[in-house]
## 1
Amino acid sequence: MYTRNDRKEARVKARRRIRERARGAADKPRLAVHRSLKHIYAQAIDDESGHTLAAASTMDPECRQQLKKGGGDIGAAKIVGSAIAARLLAKGVKTVVFDRGGFRYHGRVKALAEAARAGGLEF
């Protein structure tokens, strides 16, 4: 049986492997996703300059108005995915590099990615 620390270390190792390949630029930023038990966060990062171009999370007032309950479910991830897509398209960014942050591409992470694609982003 894995302990919490073993799972966390495995996620951090996977995150490092992903970051070796996923590099963001101004025209094609890295869409980084982080999830906790209660919330999910997404931000588009230009790694060359070290700036965040856009961000969205279940903590945002815009997203909170649309949430039915807390921010730890698939419905909330879809809201955040569509919000980050709208904010990036408003800035003229259409393509991104997806960084799942060491989390499995399943559940809330997958729902966020699919909502961002449906919102007009290309991975």
## 2
Amino acid sequence: MAKNHAISNAQAFAEYLSKLYRAYKSLEAGAETVDVDGETFTDLDEVCGRVTERALLVEVRSDWQLWPPAVSCTLTDYRITLTVGGPALRLEGELSAWCDRMTGAPKTAKIQWMDWGVPWSDYGPETDLNDALLWFASLFFGA
């Protein structure tokens, strides 16, 4: 039962993120307004702001550290915590070969969920979610 609640949490986030990604792409293509779950967006910054406020914590590692790192280093992975407790939700992935304080990009992205007594597990998203996940992660790592 608890496992289903955690998966539902991951699915709800994935669906909302997909809607925001499609809204972003529509505005980028020239749409004047887009609606997502009753909220109207008129520019790209509004959409980006709505999605990035979902993150509780952004970490990167060569070893895990808070973003942005205090010194330049070769970063290999990132983790974006979305919710904590039971259920908990995060996004994890690899960064491009070199990433310093403000360059680089996510190479991979996957949603993971966890609940009390259940270890972190990958959420198997629908096929069109990968672009939305990479877009979301890229909002935290400017080029």
## 3
Amino acid sequence: MRQFTMTVLLALVAAVAFTSARSAADGPKKAEAKSENKLVGTWKLVSAKYGGNEITFPEGTTTLKHVTPTQFMWAFYDKDGKVGAALGGPYTLMGDKYEETPEYGVGDVLEPLKGKPQSFEWKVESNKWYHNGKLSSGLTIEEVWERVQKK
């Protein structure tokens, strides 16, 4: 029985080693693949109109939006790093249409939007993302985000 257990254990170790080596070999190929999704990255909100009214951001506050190939997440925080609001979930792109469906968040912003698709038109020009549409609540949004560059 002990020899059987040792044989099974060695087979498992060999399988893990083979799988790890194979994954490592596949890794660079996947890393080299370029995403056609221009939104993937980190963005900083630089201007916004809500309901047609230009918004002035309180001094020392920042809103960042992180976009992965399948998810979005934005957070609004103050100079001390304290998050006042955040929202995230999956999104889809189809041509110039961008649709977010918030699933989680912090602050009063989550409840009226949770689980409801939010539809926008978008375009990226240079390092700016123009994001316009109407929330499911009826509020119109015109936002300009700027890509955060690596330091």
